[in-house]
Amino acid sequence: MRPEFILTLSCPDQRGIVHSVSGFLTNHGCNIIDSAQFGDAHSQLFFMRVHFSQEDDSVSEQMLRDEFAQVAQSWSMEWQLHDAHHKPRVVLMVSKIGHCLNDLLFRYKSGLLPVEIKAIISNHTDFYQLAASYNIPFHHLPLTAGASAEQKHQQEQKVLDVINGNQAELVVLARYMQILSNSMCQALSGRAINIHHSFLPSFKGAKPYYQAHDRGVKLIGATAHFVTGDLDEGPIIEQDVERVDHAMDPEKLTAIGRDVECVVLARAVNYFVEHRILLNGHKTVVFN
C-alpha cells in the first residue's frame, strides 16, 4: 500500500496558490487523488484540502514536510499534513443518555468509523457494561449536584488525565451533560466535538425539545459543534433537521430528535477524522 496523505491549509487569498501546491506535489512524486478549495470573499482567506498518494520512494514524509514548509512560508499558510491511513485516538464522554454513545460504538465496531476508541468517561455508571462489551476502558468520574468550583476543577483534572494519558486526538461529548470550565475548553480547543439536541442557534439550554414543542415548530434538528467556553456557541460542524407536526408530544419529538443527533454526530466525527474541517474565525469550512 502506497503512503497517502491529506494536506489542509489556509492563507490569505491570492492568485497562484493552487498552482503552487499542485506543482510542489507533482515535483515531489505525488499523485492527487482528490482536491477541494474555497475562497471566502468576506474573510479574504483561502482554504484547501488535498488528498494525495506518494509514488516516489525516494521522497520521505519528512522531506515533504521540510520542503513544503518553505512553500507555506511564502504564502503565509497555516497548514497540516496528515497520514491518511492513521486512525485517530478518541475518548468518548457521556452522562445518562446513551443513544449517541451506542451509535458511535456500533459504527466503530462495524468498521464504519476509522478511529481507535481508547476510553469512555462518564459522571455516572450507567454505561460501564456497554463499555465492557466493546472491551473499552470505562472511567467513572462523578460530579455531584451542587459541587464546588474546587471539586469541579479536581474532577476535570482527572478527565484531562485520562484524555492526555491516552494521547487523545479527539474528544467527543456524546451527550455529556456537564458544562465544561473555560480552562477545560481551552485545553481541548479544536479537538472536542459536542452534540446539541437543537438546531442551533434556536432553543439553547435545557430541554430544547420541550421548548420546540411549546413554540409549535414544524422542524426539529441537531447540531454538532466544536466545544468553546461560550456555551453552545462553538463553530458549527454539521446540522440536520426532521419534519414534525402539531400532533406530536415532547416525548415523540425527543425520540425523533435522538435519531437525528446520532446521524449528525457521526458525520461530524467522520469529517474530523478525514480532516475535512478547517476553522474560519468563529465558523468552519467543511469539505464534505
From TrEMBL:
This protein's pathway: Purine metabolism; IMP biosynthesis via de novo pathway; formate from 10-formyl-5,6,7,8-tetrahydrofolate: step 1/1
Domain ACT, residue spans: 6-93
Keyword match Ligase: no
UniProt-listed InterPro entries: ACT-like_dom_sf, ACT_dom, Formyl-FH4-Hydrolase_C, Formyl_transf_N, Formyl_transf_N_sf, PurU, PurU_ACT
Membrane spanning stretches: none
GO terms for MF: formyltetrahydrofolate deformylase activity
Keywords annotated in UniProt: Hydrolase, One-carbon metabolism, Purine biosynthesis
Gene3D superfamilies attached to this UniProt entry: 3.30.70.260, Formyl transferase, N-terminal domain
Pfam family, one: ACT
PROSITE patterns xrefs: ACT (PS51671)
UniProt EC number: 3.5.1.10
Catalytic activity from the UniProt record: (6R)-10-formyltetrahydrofolate + H2O = (6S)-5,6,7,8-tetrahydrofolate + formate + H(+)
Similarity comment: family membership: Belongs to the PurU family.
Protein name: Formyltetrahydrofolate deformylase
Source organism (scientific name): Undibacterium flavidum
Recorded name of the encoding gene: purU
